[in-house]
Backbone:
């Protein structure tokens, strides 16, 4: 006999997360958060400050409370509206950890061994990395599938983790196909949009802009003052050649491509139009314009972040409210999953 389930597969549900670690930068903003705000106008959106993920690097734990509030402030300041989206911190919905354990038991070590982000973060001293860092993508799959999400807006660096999430969903569907009529999980699609899907370091166009880069000059932080932004843009690495009038001539010029992509994202123009506009000019000219664009968009956001950080109770209230809403959905889905497996009677 097929099992009767209470949770419904939504037509289109968005889930995404961001780690509460210091130094949120324009890569996080352009690659993820800015898209979140657009999606909330049309879709059923759930966004999480994934504090349990941040714990996979033990040094993050000391700062976790402050970082959770700061990253929440950044997300709200960027336009996430609690009337349109659910915004919560992951650890306040314990179903994430429970589902992660269930998924740990159907995921293969070989799948996790292939994760490039683990290899990069663990480095040469793999035996010293935490078990949490290794099984991190399984928790990420639990985050997404706990809400039966159908779409996940992320930067390109998360694509492999999304593929793993699909593998886990597929494995679950196949394993338990006798218990349910239809496939329980739809395979979530990544939403990876526009020229900002991979913003690179300002010091090295081959390296991703990252919160953990030891060089602060490699990124523009959302909390940077105007003069710091101008100086970082001015010092951003480029090459001595002028800006060409077409994309093909940018091949191999990684730092140049990166600045053009950042310009395109902040100006909402496409790369082709920007190349025509700046063709023949040097990068110093583009950099002046770029500083202004970044400052115009980021400064009001920074101001609002500071304002919210002076009203932490307001941030906490939003998180508690969001957690209650998230938990309502998570509870029904997890109960169904346990019923399907045979863990709930
Ligand atoms: P995190 O916290 O590293 O980054 C948050 C988001 O920012 C994007 N991003 C970038 N986009 C463009 N250029 C860059 N240089 C850049 N750096 C970061 C990331 O792709 C991400 O979208 N594992 C995730 C958090 C997570 C999650 C989830 C995401 C946990 N559970 C479920 C989606 C769904 C992470 O570490 O993101």
Residues:
């Amino acid at each position: 006999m097929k099992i009767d389930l209470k949770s419904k597969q939504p037509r289109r549900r968005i889930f995404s997360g961001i780690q509460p670690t210091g130094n949120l930068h324009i890569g996080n903003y352009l690659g993820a958060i800015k898209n979140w705000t657009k999606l909330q106008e049309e879709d059923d959106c759930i966004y999480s400050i994934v504090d349990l993920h941040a714990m996979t690097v033990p040094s993050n734990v000391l700062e976790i409370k402050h970082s959770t509030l700061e990253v929440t402030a950044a997300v709200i300041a960027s336009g996430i509206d609690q009337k349109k989206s659910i915004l919560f911190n992951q650890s306040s919905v314990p179903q994430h950890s429970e589902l992660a354990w269930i998924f740990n038991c159907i995921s293969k070590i070989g799948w996790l061994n292939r994760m490039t982000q683990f290899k990069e973060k663990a480095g040469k001293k793999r035996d010293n990395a935490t078990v949490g860092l290794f099984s991190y993508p399984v928790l990420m799959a639990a985050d997404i599938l706990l809400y039966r999400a159908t779409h996940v807006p992320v930067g390109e660096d998360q694509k492999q983790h999304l593929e793993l999430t699909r593998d886990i969903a597929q494995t679950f569907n196949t394993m338990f196909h006798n218990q349910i009529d239809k496939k329980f999980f739809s395979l979530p699609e990544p939403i990876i949009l526009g020229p900002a899907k991979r913003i690179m370091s300002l010091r090295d166009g081959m390296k991703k802009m990252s919160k953990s880069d030891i060089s602060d000059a490699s990124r523009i932080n959302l909390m940077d003052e105007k003069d710091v932004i101008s100086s970082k843009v001015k010092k951003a690495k480029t090459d001595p050649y002028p800006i060409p009038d077409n994309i093909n001539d940018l091949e191999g010029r990684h730092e140049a491509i990166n600045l053009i992509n950042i310009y395109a994202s902040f100006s909402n123009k496409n790369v082709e139009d920007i190349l025509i506009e700046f063709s023949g000019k040097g990068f110093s000219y583009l950099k002046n314009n770029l500083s202004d664009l970044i400052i115009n968009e980021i400064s009001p956001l920074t101001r609002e972040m500071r304002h919210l950080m002076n009203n932490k109770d307001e941030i906490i209230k939003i998180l508690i409210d969001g957690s209650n809403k998230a938990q309502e959905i998570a509870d029904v889905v997890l109960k169904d999953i346990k019923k399907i497996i045979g863990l709930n009677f």
Q: What stands out?
A: The pocket of tryptophanyl-5'AMP is lined by residues 15-19, 27-28, 31-32, 50, 53, 140, 143-144, 152, 154-155, 157-158, 161, 196-199, 208-209 (CB under 6 Å). The beta strands are 13-18, 44-49, 85-89, 151-153, 189-191. The CA atoms of residues 163 and 190 lie 9 Å apart.
